[in-house]
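hiii, so i know i said id send this last week but things got crazy w the move. better late than never?? heres the sequnce for the chain we talked about at the cafe, plus the structure i predicted for it. fair warning i was half asleep when i ran it
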Amino acid sequence: MDNHDKKRTLIIEAATKRFAHFGIAKTTMTEIAKDLSLSKALLYYYFPDKISLYAAVLENIAKKMFSKIQQGLKDIDESEDAVLHLIDMRLAFTMKYYNLFDQGLNSLMEMPDELARVMQLVSNLEIKILAEIFKKANQRDEIRVDDPVQTAEIFLNAMIGMRFCVLKDKKVMFIPTKEEFDEISKMQKKLAVIFLNGLRFQKTS
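okay and structure toks below
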C-alpha cells in the first residue's frame, strides 16, 4: 500500500468513527481533518465533499461485511443455514453501524451518484454470494436451480421489497428504525425458508 492509499485509509477510518458516533449530519469535514491533524485542503484533495467520503465509508464497511459473511460460509453446507447466516450478519453490521444510516438522508430528493454506486456495489456483492450458495446447493442436489444468478436476483429483490412493507412511515423509504430493521430481518428469514423449500419442491416435481 503506497502513501496515498494509506492516507486515504486513515481518513476513511477516522470518518467511520465520527459518522458512527455522531451521524453524518452532525459531523463536519473540519472535525475529521482535526482528528487526523490534516489541513482541510488535503482532506478535500482526497474527498471533494462529505457525501463522497460518506460513500467511501459505506463501501469500506460493506466490503468488510461481505468478507466476514464469506468466511462464515466456509463452514456451512446447508443452503438454508447459509442464507440465514447472510441475513444475520447483515443485521449485525447494520446495528453496529446504525448511526451511519443517518435519518437526514431521508430528506434527499435524489440519491447522490456516489451513494447510488455504493448501493449497486452492495447489491452486486450480495447477488454474487447468494448465487454461489444456490449453485453449490444445486451441485449437491439439495435444490434445483437452472440459473443461480437470476434466482439470486429474484430472491434479493423480494427481500428488499419487505423493507417497504414493514416501514411504519411509508413516506420514509431509505432508513428504517432499529426495530424495523429487526422486523425486516425476521421476515426475510421466513421468506428464505419458504423460497428454498420451493426450490426443493421444484427438484422433486
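btw The chain is about 75% helix and 0% strand. thought thatd interest u
miss u guys!!
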